[in-house]
Amino acid sequence: MKFTQKQIDEGVKDLVMALLATAATGAGLKYSYDQFNASREPIEVKIQAAKQAKEISDDPQFDKTMDALLRKYKSAEPEKEPEKAILVKPNKRYDLNPEVPIEQFSKYIIPSEIYGNDLKDNSNRKFLKPYKDDVGLWTIGIGHLIGNGSYADMQKFVAKNGASISIEQLLKMFDIDVQKHVNIAKNKFKDQWEEFSPELKMALVDISFRGDLFKPNSKDDFNFVKQIKNRNFKGAAASYLDHKEYKKRIADGGKDGVVTRMNRNAKYIANEKPKPTLVNN
To answer: What's the pTM?
Structure first.
């Protein structure tokens, strides 16, 4: 019987050596069994040792002894309870709505930000050059802030890019700005965003772009935001239109672009259907 130390796993070496010693001395099954009983190793380790000793041995009688020993230890090995299948429903509350591409968000918002429907119209050429926004910050394109909005940053922009931009550059800047508001809206409704319809997603991004998604200087949410989070969409639509600017414009005639824009957003909020929530049993 020839073997090398590499043939024996370190974890069962002593047991294997003891068994092989019984083969060399001609000791029988009872002695091997007593040797195993004296060992404190788990039954699984003892069985592994017997298998390894049998593989190494070239003595047929020893192999028969190991077979008998394995049968005895197999019968002594506690039966394992079959693992119970764990049946879990998918952690999925709804069928996910498809994500809205950034171009679709932009197309939804841009008509409310320009004059008419044609960016190439002369009335929209003002967007191609730096201008001051409603609060006096230097801007270009459709509400794209130049640096921090200062005169110095505007001058740097002009020195680098020229006194005007192309419509293609305007649209690229606009997509970048819209993406920021997609991220803002998605974070605000992070637990629900994937269940929202494309129409509601677009309305919320437009609301963010208008600056109506967050209360100024407050960590509290607007009522309509709270109601959307509670899936009270019709109540949220009514709360969204309970807006100082909206009510003033309604009182002044109610047919301008801001009223039309907010009515459209309110319609998509009100039309949203709450999705059923499935939980794991």
So the answer is: 0.63
